[in-house]
Amino acid sequence: MSDQLIGVFQNPALLLGIPLALAGAVFMSLGAQYQHRGVEKVERISGTEGNEGLSAAQIKGLLTRPSWLIGTLMLGMAVICQLSAMSIAPLIVVQPLGAVALVVTTLLNARVSGHTPTRRSLIAIASCLGGIFLFVGLAAFYAVERPIGDTDLFTILAILLVVIIVLGACWLILRHRMRALFYVTGAGILYGFVATLAKAVISRIQAGDFDWLTVVCVIALIAAAAVGAYFVQTAYSSGPPDLVIAGLTVIDPIVAVIIGALILGEASEAPLAVVILFVVAGAVAVFGVFGLAKYHPQVLSESQELGIVRGSRGADAGEPGRADAGGSDVGGPDDASTGSATQD
């Protein structure tokens, strides 16, 4: 350990990044729910599914769906909160907190569908939150920020280029056989780079170093975000929002944290024992996320082998997020999925 101040002692404002990142996670969860409803609505109206990629007509239809637009607005708020958090705190502090979105999504779905969380799902939630906050707590004391040099940016951009080429080739060749998992994985990887590039651009602007390489980073950020958004919308058409949130909250933070630690040097001042605790905390959080995906109460209750009784709300309302093609797709928080007259 050096005598240089690190973590919160070096940057007390870092602590403000934590609630901002948590607010972003909540907006992300709500935004995903509303966008998923909008995608389902457009598919029912068009009479075609977007499993192999949304068509131009379907994308145009999304722009007229209130639920999808509300979800997009909420995701925009999530981005603002996330960028604000990254402007004052290292990636390894704020990015893991995005996994809280999965916990919010799970609890929200359990409430509106009437499926009581099981013991296993509660254990998964505790593991997820425990691992996240242990990781963030350690990062708050040991994370450091240093100027992001040209070599760092070239490295990040080169890796991103390879990733885009590989994902593009897979999509062109195998898109007829691709399912939600591919699109979620691709979006998670791309969003991890989006977060990293956003952090790099913000840091360069704050340092007054806005040169041509920074402009290239902005262009790469927009391109990666656009492709990632397309992948996410396609994933909504072939999988539940929980799967999308689960994939993004696992893959996105892992990619961003790895880049932040290995390329940006944000964990360079952490002793070996703390690095080991980072790995353990991350593993516990990932275990909790996969546990939520596997033991989600709604998934379990729909399994005939497990005979878990549905809640009265879910039984009376039917499947959340369904309605006639001509119905409204916007309601309050409870209307979003409970089977009321305003549901999608």
Description:
With 344 residues, this protein is an all-alpha fold. The protein has one domain. The chain has 14 helices and no strands. The longest helix has 33 residues. The C terminus is likely disordered.
Secondary-structure topology with pairs:
Elements: H1 7-10, H2 14-46, H3 56-62, H4 66-88, H5 91-94, H6 100-113, H7 119-142, H8 150-174, H9 180-206, H10 212-238, H11 241-262, H12 272-294, H13 297-301, H14 312-317
Helix pairs in contact: 2-3, 2-4, 2-6, 6-11, 7-12, 8-9, 8-10, 9-10, 9-11, 11-12
Salient structural properties:
0% strand, mainly alpha
Low-confidence segments, ≥5 residues, pLDDT <50? 299-328, 332-344
Taken together, the total number of domains comes to 1
Percent of residues in helices: over 70%
Portion of residues in beta strands equals under 5%
Largest sheet: none
Assembly level: single chain
Q: Tell me, rounded to a whole number, the average pLDDT.
A: 77
The shape is: globular
Distance between the termini: 56 Å
Derived structural class: mainly alpha
SSE series:
HHHHHHHHHHHHHH
SS summary, helix count: 14
Q: Please tally the β strands and state the result.
A: 0
Radius of gyration: 20 Å
Quick summary of this structure?
This protein has 344 residues and is mostly helical. It is built from 14 helices and no strands. Helix 2 crosses helix 3 and helix 8 (150-174) runs antiparallel to helix 9 (180-206).
